[in-house]
Specification:
Layout: E1 3-4, E2 7-8, H1 9-56, E3 65-68, E4 79-82, H2 90-105, H3 111-122, H4 129-141, E5 151-161, E6 167-178, E7 181-195, H5 201-206, E8 211-220
Antiparallel strand pairs: 1-2, 3-4, 5-6, 6-7, 7-8
Amino acid sequence: MSENGGLQTTELERLDTWYRIISQRDGTAERRVWHWQLLAGALVVIVLGVGIWDHISPRADVKAFVQVNEDGQVINLGLPQDLLTYTPQDAQWLDMLSEWVRRIRWRGSDVVKAQADWNWARAHLCGGPVKHFVDEMEKHEKPFTQVGKRLIAVEIKAATATPAPSTYHVFWEEISTETTAQRVKKYTGTFTVSRMQPATQAVLLQNRLGLCITALNMSEEP
């Protein structure tokens, strides 16, 4: 074999072969690094896109469900059922209306309780004219600024369904105390009811069955 600059031809060929192999490996490593960088960049873009979409996308309406047994009664365990497909029983309407009267007519010395009671009562209004009626009642009676000046205890005497659909009567007494005098007045309330899908989680926590009042009339008995 011939020599070239002190190295045999086969030796030069061997070195050239190793150089090409090393260059090929280096190129492959560089491409792998580039591919990983590209993948990492794509993942960052995806994560940012999901975060932006989640921030600006409108939230879905609050969905509420109740659990019922085969007889349609609410139970703690049972098959989930869409809230508005469930039909409340008369007893549930009467319980809600009796509690609504207690909370809206009670007057005590605790402003926090008064505010909580009115919030609960508002969570059981269907909106529209009845909401305006309660707003005007609040302005007239000032239940939060007159706390402690006039005490009223409420005693429910009866609550009944009427022949008219979705309409109920509630009868109660109000025992009021001003200074040393005590008076007892009797009242009758007529309520028309309906259903609603709670708009917020706060309303849902106070009104799990979506029961609401569409119209009401409260009057003192002679």
